[in-house]
Amino acid sequence: MKCSVCPRQCMTQRDINYGFCSVSEKFRIARAAPHFWEEPCISGNNGSGTVFFSGCNLGCVYCQNYDVSHNAFGKDVTEDELLRIFDNLVEKGVHNINLVTPTHFAPMLAKALGKYNSPVPIVYNSSGYEKAETLEMLEGLVDIYLPDIKYFDSAPAKKYSDAEDYFEYASSAVLEMYRQVGNIVLDENGIAKKGIIIRHL
């Protein structure tokens, strides 16, 4: 496909070459495991079932996961393998399935999640650099949106992420996320079940 999934709109034929995000149209993941260091209402006591996707459409120079985001460290998996990974995480008792840096796989994830009847909430954990029309594909498939708001000023957005239009897209994306899932809803144990949590970084 000629990719226009994210604001970069690099129009790379991802079945042939890599785009800005450094990955093809195949799912590529770096790690899948219970994670205990997200926001308390996401990790809880049992952990969040994180699936770290390789590559990134934002590519901040200060990224703490540089090898994963910039160098696309990881392993290609099929849709069926990805769904089995979800099942394995659920069997470990995690509170949710947490899709970390999923933006550049959004259309493929929409297809996969449409086949998956998750017994736990699905978390979409992103940089906030999203196109609202791409997020529309995920309506009814994502329970919790966990976006960053990294920049308001275009100068540091350009300097550190080469994305001077960051806030324009992130603010529009957050409004679309909120339209889909609304305010955060917690269960009796303080674990997030639905809604949006915005991280100001």
Structure description:
There is one protein chain. By secondary structure, the chain is α/β, with parallel strands linked by helices. The protein is 29% helix and 21% strand. The chain is built from seven helices and nine strands; from the N terminus they run E-H-E-H-E-H-E-H-E-H-E-H-H-E-E-E. The protein has helices at 40-43, 66-69, 79-91, 106-115, 132-135, 154-161, 166-181; strands at 27-35, 48-53, 75-77, 97-100, 122-126, 144-149, 185-186, 192-196, 199-200. Strands 1, 2, 3, 4, 5, 6, 7, 8 and 9 form a nine-stranded mixed sheet that branches. Strand 7 (185-186) and strand 8 form a beta hairpin. The longest helix is centred in the C-terminal third of the chain and has 16 residues, at 166-181. The radius of gyration is 16 Å and the shape is globular. The chain starts with 26 loop residues before the first strand and ends with a strand.
List the defining traits of the structure above.
single chain, 201 residues, alpha/beta
Layout of helices and strands:
Layout: E1 27-35, H1 40-43, E2 48-53, H2 66-69, E3 75-77, H3 79-91, E4 97-100, H4 106-115, E5 122-126, H5 132-135, E6 144-149, H6 154-161, H7 166-181, E7 185-186, E8 192-196, E9 199-200
Parallel strand pairs: 2-4, 4-5, 5-6, 6-8, 6-9
Antiparallel strand pairs: 1-2, 1-3, 7-8
